[in-house]
Amino acid sequence: MKLAQLTYALTAGFPADERFALCAQMKRAAVSIPSNIAEGAARGSKKEFAHFLTVSRGSLSELDTQITLARDLGFTADTQAIEDQVDRVFRLINGLVSSVRAGHETNPQ
């Protein structure tokens, strides 16, 4: 959720002509990350949860790429805080995927 908030704050300073392009794409990816985690957790099966976690990680990879592109295009200069949060979320999701998959192998549902 914090990453989505940081994304909205970062994109608020983008040029107006990017509002419906890169800006919107970044917001969609950022919202997709916690949304897929929530949906997967609600599914009730470890296999489905692991699947939605990997979808979430894919959205995180998209956002990571888009942040780099925004910086390289000069839309923002300071991306350190959001890049740090992206790294943190990658670690958290990877740990959760490993944990869920390990639990799935020993206790399938």
TrEMBL record:
Q: Which InterPro entries match?
A: 23S_rRNA-intervening_sequence, 23S_rRNA_IVS_sf
- Superkingdom to which the source organism belongs: Bacteria
Name the UniProt record assigns to this protein = Four helix bundle protein
Source species of the chain: Denitromonas iodatirespirans
